[in-house]
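Collaborator request, handled under Task 6.
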Amino acid sequence: MEKSIYAGIMTGTSIDGIDALAVDFASQPPAIGKLCQAPFADDLRDLLLQLQNSGADELALAADAANRLAIASARTLATLLAEQQIDAAQVAAIGLHGQTVRHNPAAGWTIQLANGALLAQLSGIDVVCDFRSSDIGRGGQGAPLAPAFHQLLFAGKKPRRIVNIGGMANITVLDGNGNGRIAYDTGPGCALLDAMAERHLGCRMDENGAWAAGASADADLLDRMLAHPFFAAQPPKSCGRDQFNITWLDGLAGSLDPQTVQATLLELSAQSIAAAIGAAAEVGGDAIICGGGARNEALVARISELAHPLETKACREHGYQPECIEPAAFAYFAKLRIEEKELPVSWATGAKADGCAGAVYRAAKR
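C-alpha cells returned to the collaborator:
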C-alpha cells in the first residue's frame, strides 16, 4: 500500500530551533498534524549564528553543524512520532529544509546546512533535502518555494495573499481562481527584531512586540533602511541575512536609542509587508498571516492598520498553527520528489521552467 504520510522539518532564518510535523496527503486539503518544536541548544545556535559570516575553519565548522542538526532533527522527529503514535515505517519520506547560512542566487548558489544521509540512517526514513539548488540551476531565485504549497492549501474563490513572517518575510498572491500570480521575499521579518531583543533584553525575542511598541519609529532611520536597493528591486527577488543583518543595522542606527531602533525595525517590517499586500492588482480578497512572526501582536496589528481596508487574518482562523505552514510545505516537496513530480514554483522564483527539486538519501534497509 502506498504511504501517504510525509514529515517536514524546518529550521528558518530566525535560527531559533527545529519545527517538525507530519502531513497525511490521503485527503484534500492534506491533514497537517500538530507541530513539534525543539529550541536549539545554546552552543549549536551560537555556531549557526557564527556561520552566518565568513570566518576561520568555517568548512569544518559547517560540516560539524550539519551533523549536529541531523542529530537534533532525528531526536525531534522521534519525539513527534512517539507523541502522535506514528510508526516510522508509516512515513514515506522526510522533507528537510536545512539551515540557510548563505543565499546568493545572483552568483548561482545557496547553502542550507543539512546532512540528509545521516538523518536517513538515524531515523530509518528516506530524506529529501537541498530543494533550492535545482531552482537556482534553472535560473530562479531558489526562494520563496512555499508559494507552491500556499497554492495547494489556500486557493479559494477570491483573491488571496499569504504572508509568511519568519526571520525574513515573503508574500504569495493568488487570484480568484487559485492561480499563482506572483510571490517574492518582502524583506526583514523578525530576524533583526530578535537580534536586538537578545542584545538589549537578554531574551531571544521581543515578546508580542511589546518592547518595540513602547517607543516610536525614527523617520530618518526608517528612510535610510528603506533606501536599501532590495526594496526597489522588482520580483522575482529573495533575501536573507546576507543583506539584512546586525552589521547593516548598526551602520545605519549609530548611537540611536535601542528601543527607538526596535520600533523602527518593526515599522520597516510592517511597511514592507503591507506595501506588498497592497501592490497586488486584485480588488478585495484577504491576506492570511502565518509564520512565527504571526505571534508578534504589535507587528500584525501594524500590518493590518497599513493594509486597511483589505482584511488580514491569522492562519489560526483557518485551523493552522502559524509555524506549521513551512514544515508542511517541505513535507509536500518531499512527496513530489519521491513521486518524481515537478515542484510547480517557477512562477514565483523566476526559474526558466519547473523541475524536480531535492536530493534523495535512502535509509538503509533493516
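The cover message to the collaborator said: "The CA atoms of residues 166 and 291 lie 5 Å apart. The chain is about 40% helix and 20% strand. Please let us know whether this matches your experimental observations."
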